[in-house]
Amino acid sequence: MSNTPSDTSATAAGVRTTGAPGSAAADASGAYIRKGFGLKAEVQETLAADYTGHLVDLLRERDYALEAGDTTIRLAREFGFCYGVERAVDYAYQTRRKFPERRIFLAGEIIHNPHVNAKLQEMGVIFLSAKGKGFDYAPVEPKDVVILPAFGVTIQDFQTLRELGCVVVDTTCGSVLNVWKRVEAYARDGFTSLIHGKYYHEETRATASQVEKYNGGQYLVVRDMAEAELVMDYLEDRAGVQPAREPLSREAFLERFAKAASDGFDPDVHLERVGVANQTTMLARESLAIGAAVGESMTRGYGEAHRAEHFRTFDTICSATQDRQDAVMELLRDPLDLMVVVGGYNSSNTISLAALCAEQVPTYHIADPDEIDVAENRVRYRRIGAKHHEDEMSSWLPTTGPLRIGITAGASTPNNKIGQAVARVFAIRGVDAGSII
């Protein structure tokens, strides 16, 4: 999600706003709202009460470090809510204020943070469940309001909502829209979109759907470099060049990527022209490496001239994701005993941060400060690479002796949750965070 404001009238279905914020048209069924309702000032107090963290403010004031006795906590200089997330949450609160009597639905989760989504549920926002590659809109009626999350939704979802005629409040991040435009251009020009991402992630599903604006548009999603290498081996084998590894057969390839490829995808046909894009919250260095490696593979297979005409790649990692990863790497230059990474377990940008940290120091990825049990000095966390379970560790923090702890948070983590995690770490070390202020 982007660090800087980036708004555009582009949408998955090419819909335009039917009325200015706050106008009569904006109240009508069938309205499409992308720029809020002009109620930002009215919801700011509530937002501040829900998400402001005083300890985080203090960390900023003291050069991102707090010391108490022999305990030091250092915060990465870029962390937590980015502009795209702030905008999405702000618009959700504005929508509730604008339509106090209407049913308000949300397509999935507004962002990948359990605390934020729980707050919206407390406000009466109804979360729509997933259905296929989109969401189940069966409960929605024309008089209702549907909020689209920061990740965006597929073009099929857009079409369904247009047919329903309900009010649509679109919080899709500008950085995501930029990737959509890139993928749409690939499809328009006859290139298959090779997307570095998670095929099941809301953003990647929405991005991949952009190819369907053009007849014959195709996509293939690769999770990591290992999967990208399978694609490169197949491509080189087809070109008559001996690949580095034994390539998959066509049948094995299609089976491996059955859930990650567009309908009708044929590796014998659709790897001829390739354009690389990515889910905006993936590990930036891996996205760039995949783009470079696929280009080199194209050169090995067909030559430089062919590559120039048949391959494209662009860095579509959002600035906020890049900034937070860069800040973590900077933080890790100084000795730390461990890292705490705060953010939802289904938050890709948080997972990427935790993976970077774990390469250099023991790392605990926690979804919420409640995962830290002060009385028992126990933490519940998710190991890097684990998908569906959490581990617990007792005596995870030494209670005596010098200790240097780093902390960061994904772009969907509010400051108050970061501050609460800091307070709990201090408490285990016998320090009342209130005494530091």
TrEMBL record:
Organism whose genome encodes this protein: Gemmatimonas aurantiaca (strain DSM 14586 / JCM 11422 / NBRC 100505 / T-27)
Biased composition (Polar residues): 1-11
Enzyme class: oxidoreductase
Coiled coil residues, start to end: none
CDD domains: lytB_ispH (cd13944)
Pathway membership: Isoprenoid biosynthesis; dimethylallyl diphosphate biosynthesis; dimethylallyl diphosphate from (2E)-4-hydroxy-3-methylbutenyl diphosphate: step 1/1; Isoprenoid biosynthesis; isopentenyl diphosphate biosynthesis via DXP pathway; isopentenyl diphosphate from 1-deoxy-D-xylulose 5-phosphate: step 6/6
Keyword annotations of the record: 4Fe-4S, Iron, Iron-sulfur, Metal-binding, Oxidoreductase
Protein name in UniProt: 4-hydroxy-3-methylbut-2-enyl diphosphate reductase
Region Disordered, annotated ranges: 1-25
Pfam families: LYTB (PF02401)
Phylogenetic lineage: Bacteria, Pseudomonadati, Gemmatimonadota, Gemmatimonadia, Gemmatimonadales
Protein origin, superkingdom: Bacteria
